[in-house]
Amino acid sequence: MLEITNLSRSFNGRPALHSTSLRLAEGEYVAIVGESGVGKSTLLNLIAGLDRADQGNVVLDGEDLGRLDEAALTRWRRHKLGFIFQAFHILPHLTLQQNVALPLWLQGGSGAAADDSARQMLDAVGLAGRAASWPHELSGGELQRVAIARALVHRPRLVLADEPTGNLDPANATRVLDLLGERIRAAGAIGILVTHSREAAATADRILQLTPDGLQE
Fold this sequence. Notes:
The chain is an alpha/beta fold. 36% of the residues lie in helices and 27% in strands. The protein has helices at residues 40-47, 70-80, 96-106, 111-124, 140-152, 170-187, 198-201, and strands spanning 2-11, 14-24, 29-33, 55-60, 63-64, 81-85, 158-162, 190-194, 206-211, 214-216.
């Protein structure tokens, strides 16, 4: 269970997010839409523990992130969180297999087991046989599929996606969104997609509108 209660954040005295609450159960996948500047990315960063709220709480499976120090938050992210970014953030000096295996290495997983899991996940996202390829050899759509594989390889409880198709053409965007939803549901994870696109949002189970007053159905 993910419980977000009265979450607020300001920067230099200007509110970026105001009194936002949300509750999601295991297996739920929602899209959050809203105008630019309304606080969508701020909300994801607070949920991920990448930023601290001025007030409010983020609780996953009974664990309040606000009570964790930076070291504990880092461990929490390594084990519980998968984050997919618009800019991919695929490391150019690592092969695709190494990029996908990275979360498992950070958890202390063995090389052979991590590599096997990474290859299986690459197969699952339609990149079978490309484990030894380098990022510069792939298209944008393929790189985003690698990012999805990396975000899910360690079976996180929570998957966050911040405009994951913003740099993709429509055909690749559709493939990536279908894949993202399929893998989140298959893993029984909690998924949150932030997007400005109503078409992208429609691939989630339900759509929430973020406004200056909080989230609305």
